[in-house]
Amino acid sequence: xxxxxxxxxxxxxxxxxxxxxxxxxxxxxxxxxxxxxxxxxxxxxxxxxxxxxxxxxxxxxxxxxxxxxxxxxxxxxxxxxxxxxxxxxxxxxxxxxxxxxxxxxxxxxxxxxxxxxxxxxxxxxxxxxxxxxxxxxxxxxxxxxxxxxxxxxxxxxxxxxxxxxxxxxxxxxxxxxxxxxxxxxxxxxxxxxxxxxxxxxxxxxxxxxxxxxxxxxxxxxxxxxxxxxxxxxxxxxxxxxxxxxxxxxxxxxxxxxxxxxxxxxxxxx
Amino acid sequence: xxxxxxxxxxxxxxxxxxxxxxxxxxxxxxxxxxxxxxxxxxxxxxxxxxxxxxxxxxxxxxxxxxxxxxxxxxxxxxxxxxxxxxxxxxxxxxxxxxxxxxxxxxxxxxxxxxxxxxxxxxxxxxxxxxxxxxxxxxxxxxxxxxxxxxxxxxxxxxxxxxxxxxxxxxxxxxxxxxxxxxxxxxxxxxxxxxxxxxxxxxxxxxxxxxxxxxxxxxxxxxxxxxxxxxxxxxxxxxxxxxxxxxxxxxxxxxxxxxxxxxxxxxxxxxxxxxxxxxxxxxxxxxxxxxxxxxxxxxxxxxxxxxxxxxxxxxxxxxxxxxxxxxxxxxxxxxxxxxxxxxxxxxxxxxxxxxxxxxxxxxxxxxxxxxxxxxxxxxxxxxxxxxxxxxxxxxxxxxxxxxxxxxxxxxxxxxxxxxxxxxxxxxxxxxxxxxxxxxxxxxxxxxxxxxxxxxxxxxxxxxxxxxxxxxxxxxxxxxxxxxxxxxxxxxxxxxxxxxxxx
Lengths: 269, 501
Known about the structure:
A: 10 helices; B: disordered N terminus; disordered C terminus
């Protein structure tokens, strides 16, 4: 029952992001006469420093965070998955080089590396996805490698090898289906992380460029008017918190559902 | 133990702090007037150094350290006024210091950014320790207005004294210390009143510190909403004056889109400057039609200008060959300063309404200014700050003044404008010069190398702990000469042990 709230938040977020073009929103329409106007019955979240409706920009920002988080996680899972699985399966020097590479990547603080990359690549949403993807694959790669190392000597894999199945077939048919569950759980947490990271980069001016909206850039712009128009920080801040919390709660729930050991221990008890 | 506690309480009781703390958005970059080019350094150097010439009402050059006579069109004699001021090390300022300062600037090895305009000087003589003769290579009626650089002691110039770190001038304030990059402490020579400049880049933090009385004075560089917010608080007074800093949109004339006069005129008609001033700048600016405001002696009294007219803008764009299916795209460069970015977003929106797609590129100040100086732009917004002498026209608009020689960054070339500049420079009659400069500004408005935006007002927010601060017309910090702590109207602060003559 504790699931309905996070599920409805994430579903609304995804719905608004996907079906944004269906709404007649004007997130970029500047109305100088409404600059910093507080929430009212007509405009229930007020207007920002350029007289743009905060509600419309929040929904537009939802699309940015949804698009970025999905792309970053997809990039991370595919890149990390392929590298991790190949490394573990091939073993030997390939695995040794891979492990060193992962260690080097992990030596850098993730968000700091993303900031450096986004700074070097230049501001823009495409570069943010690339920077976060480059930083984010390591976790998935380690997880995939660990899972494959545990499974590659399993009976069904040895049997496939014995009957002469090629490596790609063994990976695709006999290993990937078994490591998908932990990867999906990791990805669900990755979505929450990517939302925060995108907001962080946009807060620093490395994300979306004006006039596009992002929750991070909305918070950044709002901090300058905290004393005169606190609604500019409160609404995007609360939205960001709610979506990240909901994504994490869903991740928790998924982990509980997909963890075989936990399920069996529950059944025993 | 009780005695110990009492003695601790006794120790913690401290005297009131009389130092005035001045919150700055940017720290001064160079306290050597030969090198300083940024506004904060120039304003601070005015307090630390004295200069031969200053500017009075109508931005006309007036005597500061010296009066002058024009002995011939190429010979100006400056007589230092008595009593001559003392440098902070006790030595008296003389004509030799003036000569040494200007010789040092003219020396190519010094690499002073102010050398360009002063290269008109052929020779400097010092017949007496009170008199300086400037001989020019060619006549220039504006010459006295160029001698506004702070005078340094000749012996310290010869010794290579690090003025940028340890300024030594003869101004009303003397340098005390610079504990770190964010703080600079100076002391008024007349009574020992200390002023500490504190760099606080974030406007919200500056606002909060002013509210908490941690700083006592903030001048410009605040979002208009925060100015209104602060002025409503008890304990803070707002001073406001019309300014002359000219904000504009600049264009690359070599670009196939904005190089077209019709497109630039369309842009001029598409921007609702009155609306932006009223709602965004909260009325703290006035519409500009030319580089100089009407009160400047060379400023035009009135020019027709470009009114907000989206229909006319669309018509002009159509005439230039653009329409709904074939919209021009312009890259607009600006700094990352949040307020400049906010204005850029408004201009982007207003241009979009008439059919111009604008892509904003915001860069940190160094990158942005570097791009502008080297001509890497299509359109940009910037402001001319503290410009007083009409020699700016040759520097910014003459076809020979493209970088690195001058600041004609957009490669504007107009034969008539060039001719008007040359005529104005050659004439020695001020009235005629005024007419020529006004005609030139009308020509510039017609051909639009810049789209003029506005002159932003100056404002200062002063804590009522201090009194006597008067905001100056050009936004300099000279008001600190009169400021005093309200708690001691007559007696000097207690920490002062040394009084100056």
